[in-house]
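[step 3/7] inverse_fold.run input=structure_tokens len=113
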């Protein structure tokens, strides 16, 4: 399993958000370097944003969720065309799970396990 994992739950429907494009970036100065990308599966998860043997250095990272694609695929209008979650890791090789709870007019996140 990747050191960074995620999942999205559409809390309006009470179901996983399927086929949401997600990209992972690392901050390098004023720039963002893309490290990985994918789409959520039937369970709303991406377990392989990074190769299993990749260990990230301490730093600031950003996960970009293309929520507009999801809302469009479901013939729904959404207020947030994308969600960016910026977080910091300490470089100890620990696993980080970044979930997103999503509705058309709101979202929340937390550090999962």
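[step 3/7] decode complete -> sequence:
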């Amino acid at each position: 399993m990747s050191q960074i994992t995620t999942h999205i739950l559409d809390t309006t429907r009470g179901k996983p958000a399927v086929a949401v494009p997600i990209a992972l970036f690392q901050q390098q100065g004023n720039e963002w370097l893309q490290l990985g990308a994918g789409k959520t599966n039937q369970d709303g998860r991406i377990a392989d944003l990074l190769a299993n043997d990749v260990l990230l250095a301490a730093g600031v990272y950003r996960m970009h969720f293309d929520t507009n694609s999801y809302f469009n695929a479901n013939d729904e209008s959404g207020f947030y065309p994308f969600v960016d979650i910026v977080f910091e890791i300490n470089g100890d090789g620990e696993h980080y799970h970044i979930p997103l709870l999503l509705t058309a007019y709101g979202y929340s996140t937390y550090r999962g396990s």
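[step 4/7] annotate
Strands lie at 4-10, 15-16, 21-28, 31-39, 45-46, 59-65, 83-89, 96-103, 106-109.
The mean pLDDT is 95.
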